């Protein structure tokens, strides 16, 4: 967490240019995403593609993401594609009043700020989540996306940690540690044996972050992917041969 330079909370309300400035303290909530978050998830997924200059590869739509993340008959909690959202607010969160059993109790934390944080997209990223508290000053800051995976090395599933992303205003505040740590805590407390994923070697800050969080890097392995036209060749081959593999 960032260290405090002020014990006061100063909030400049949304201005005509759609900005909100938070100084002193910022309050956070990590919760499981719901269908009401679909538009924001779509936007955040697009932003991480833009960050990596991969927008030309982004094929998802809100409808297709809804089918992926919020199925009518979902897998058991955390076995299917799962998204945790980190929300921020200039005022404290309280536990939900609506008594919804979503299988995960929100994690509430407060960060002391070294510098002001500007929420520059108040309307675009205002949370639509209804927890029964009628709290309106809540904004989506980032997400973690993960799902269960399996390996012949273990007799239990682990987590494949697909991505972690924060909007620019909320980076370098210690929130990444909170969000990744929450995923790791879910894994450890629910019988999953690992949290694994791809670590970009070119991104030193990201690489060092995961090392510091306890992730072990296996240099003897390289990431491989069969996709696109090369994958489609196998479907065409099966059709042409008129049988199964």
TrEMBL record:
Endoplasmic reticulum recorded as keyword: no
InterPro entries according to UniProt: Acyl_CoA_acyltransferase, Diverse_Substrate_AcTransf, GNAT_dom
Domain N-acetyltransferase: 83-236
Record keywords, A-Z: Acyltransferase, Transferase
Organism listed in the record: Capsicum annuum
Pfam family, one: Acetyltransf_1
GO function terms (MF aspect): acyltransferase activity, transferring groups other than amino-acyl groups
Encoding gene, per UniProt annotation: THT
Name of protein: Tyramine n-hydroxycinnamoyl transferase
Transferase found in the keyword field: yes
Residue ranges, annotated region (Disordered): 1-20
